[in-house]
Amino acid sequence: MELGQPDRRLVLKGAALTAAVVGVGMRLFDGTAAAAPAADGVFGYGVASGDPTSDAVVIWTRATPPPTRRGEPVAAPGSGLGHPLRVRWEVARDPAFRHVVRAGTVWTSAESDHTVKVDVRGLRPYTRYHYRFHTAGQTSDVGLTRTAPDEAERTHALRFALLSCSNYPAGLFTPYRAVGERDDLDFVLHVGDYIYEGDGDDEAFDLTGYRLRHALHKADPHLRLAHRRHPWITIFDDHEVADNTWSTGAGNTDPAGDFARRRQAAYQAYLEWMPFRLPDQAAPHRGTRFFRRFRFGDLADLSVLETRQNRSAQVFLPPYSTPGGGFVPVGTPEVDAALADPSRHMVEPEQLAWLKETTTQPRRWHLVGNQTVFTPIRFPGAVVGFPDRPVIVNSDQWDGYGADQSALIAHLAAQPTSAGDAVFLTGDIHSSWANDIPAGPRAPGYASAGVEFVCPSVTSDGFYELIKGTLPTGTPVATLLGATAGAVGGISAANPWIRYLNGVSHGFTLVDVTRERVQADFHHTPVPSEAVPDPRTDPTTRPVFSSGWQTLAGTRTVVPAPGPIGPRSDEPH
Prior knowledge:
It holds the Pfam family PhoD_N. Residues 160-522 form the PhoD-like phosphatase metallophosphatase domain. Residues 525-547 are annotated as: Disordered. The protein is 19% helix and 25% strand. By secondary structure, it is of the alpha+beta class. The protein has two domains: 6-40 and 148-560, Purple Acid Phosphatase, chain A, domain 2; 55-143, Purple acid phosphatase-like, N-terminal (Immunoglobulin-like, Sandwich), CATH 2.60.40. The strands form five sheets. A ten-stranded mixed beta sheet has the order 5-2-1-13-10-9-24-25-26-27.
């Protein structure tokens, strides 16, 4: 989604890189940088793992074939060059690989952009494993992964990092390094905008372009570390394809006009370059089924939604927003009718039914990996640059699909506490939130159907950067921070179910799950200062604990946590 006109946006996804931004040293998309690891050896793009279950995990690498003769071009990503390679893989219980438990070989070629993906089965639950690859006389880095804490009649610790929105030009990926340096995570949950397709004259439209975007991210040392150290569970949002996608189009269109072809190329590159396991396609769905579920014993399940492939076109209304959605004013009859139209869907009805069925199953917690904000949010028009309208909603969020949103909230509110509590885990909006999800009348005294924790962006522009772009160059940092605080205060006042909102910092959210509570600790980059006006460009910065929030079992509300998350209650084998 893009919200309103460029100089009025409060929430930004896919920031356009202006000359002023370039002037402070932020990086541009660089095809040379994307291709560089291909010349650093067969396994220059590192290793990754993902989609851990109790007995399986996907392992990944790219095996660049060495030139067969002097002067032969390097088989860079997207080039279509390079001969097929036979790659051997190993999974062991120890980093020296004295106790190999699974091994095999697989072929890769230019058809898959020389990526290698193996779904390793027959592993033990809640167990650490090491893995590596060999070919052409070279051996990859050793990756560390673990299977899921999913054992019958046993409750294990569950802890993971929640991330989203890593726009390469917007800053350095130091939050990924902070995640990679941790040793207490079961997995990383990334809920979308892992790559950005670009903007303006520099945008991916075809398979080569999307492959290079993924390669550029895998070339980043901070991101490579986070992949090497932890298994990931991922899902795409819009920017893995194009800004503000819906089922048949996007906010920024392909000059060739063939959105279906463009989307297919983006999906292919995503499946090649991510340690992602396509789920069983037999379950009811439309198109390709990407939504899937993970289980963690009787403690929790994690339903990962996919909200772009089958969504209806977003409601838009000039001059507030353009095709692809964004800010639209409440109180306009045609807008209100469109927002509530039961024929418009955020996800296909089959997926919504699947999610409802999940939340009726007895688990202490129903975790929901979700792309855009689920909680109903009303933006004061004056705060977001539309003083002529008292109430604005963002039609690219669940608020733009009121029938689906209301039906799911009503379903969650109707579930007995014995069925467990729903916790939505969301990204997209480039800011940090802890929300109750109001059911029924949205006024003081509301009942809550569940909670939502929204992670900050890794780098993508948030409220602070957007407000900075609307004020004169040279505006003091203290003034910018004050303006951001005013906007945040206005939004919070209009939505009393928002328990916490930070619109300044970037980073990640640490989520810890026990039978008694789910806690979300927000780890943030430093607040901008005159000395360091943009911490995203500082290579020494690391996100640190900023604020902790929790929901206690059975309450379905958010309260402050008593302190940061402590040591794990147990460790995998």
